[in-house]
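Journal club prep, shared notes

We agreed each person brings one worked example of a sequence with its structure written out as tokens. Mine is Histidine--tRNA ligase. I'm keeping it raw so we can talk through how to read the token line rather than staring at a rendered picture. Sequence first:
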Amino acid sequence: MAKKQKQFRPKARLPKGLRDLRADDVAARRAMLATIMQVYESYGFDPLETSAFEYADALGKFLPDADRPNEGVFSFQDDDDQWLSLRYDLTAPLARMVAENYETVPKPFRRYQTGQVWRNEKPGPGRFREFTQCDADSVGAPEMAADAELCAMVSDALEAVGIPRGDYVVRVNNRKILDGVLETIGVPAGEEGALQRMTVLRAIDKLDRLGADGVKLLLGDGRKDDSGDFTKGAGLNSDQADTVLAFVGAGDEDRSKVLDTLRGLVGTSETGLAGVAELEEIATLLDATGYGPDRILFDPAVVRGLGYYTGPVFEAELTFDVKDEKGNPIRFGSIGGGGRYDDLVSRFKGTPIPATGVSIGVDRLLAALEALGRNKTKSLTPPVVVLPLDKDRMADYQRMVFDLRNAGIRAEMYLGGAGMRAQLKYADKRGAPVAVIQGSDEFEKGEITLKDLVLGAELSKEIEDNTTWREDQPAQVSVSADGLIQAVKDMLARPHMQA
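Then the structure, token by token:
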């Protein structure tokens, strides 16, 4: 007899670096995004959605870890042998869309977008391969007023979702100033010094994690971490590295003081002086609208990791501490940022097209709000559940559900195949506040039983005598079928339902 072949069953497993989100998480995210979008729209930005996939050459190679295998993106070849990639941010697809529709879109083109992005990176604690961003961009806007506006808008958005002033700061810098500093210390410009400049940029971007000493090693020959892995440095000598660190440490609440320090560091570099002049203009605009250094701070340590930034860059940081489950203090740090990318759309058009944008990391901001207990919507209101006890009367039960919904009550009918005990158990698992029950006897009498499941759960903890429970049934009432809607509303209005 032939041996029975074992049937293959795939293992249910979630890919590394990805997550499943349940109802409470989805509801909290949706509420937070609605608030952010309202702020964006108040500034005149319109919504846009772009494709999750782009041709790989359209996305470009701008990720900070571009020397990694697969260049940090998930890619595949389509049926005509062209490479497609999942978008790694929302800015590169925007640049493609504007270039493709340049003659028909208004300029400046102001849009906001919320969506998933993917990075082919090593996952770790708090670091995912799929995450959500919420962006706003102005394409075709050469004035520094566009950059100042984005900084102000992020500040307004953070306060709107529940981060009070003093618990965040938007840090601002300018890539041109860093280019000017590197020019003064002899780092080559153009293609010749591109790799060295990017290595310097990545070293500075690790300042919060490694401190000044660790960054200096990365600016020099390189650094060996605790595991023994060696990261090759930018190859600067000690004096060059000290100049870069002086630039990084020039931040101060006095914007004029920061600007004076930066002028001294860039010397006669035209690029560097242009960057300082742009920061000075942003300072004037922020002062005029009342956004002081308590909200928006000039900090040269902000350089941003992406390679397409060409001018002002900014980063929104949460400054408060909370404690983890073990009581250790943790800080959320950066929850978004952006900057000017005047060359990104120009890659497609061949003509100068200025642009600037900002992105909020939705998941990180949501985690911060949860840590502060400031989620405006913690969860969806559970539905009232109608129990279909008589299978021959499904249409009657369906009518009850529709009547409840039409009255503005979230409701559903149990659609499984089990009996009353299992149906009530289902309603409990759903967190239903009320169960609507009508068996054959009740139908004949024109009555419906409403079970207050919230009160019932509390009373069941207090009453140990089942006889007392059956006789009193304080959480259960009988109402006329015609009065169903008002009776459910009255039960939902009970004080313990509002807790």
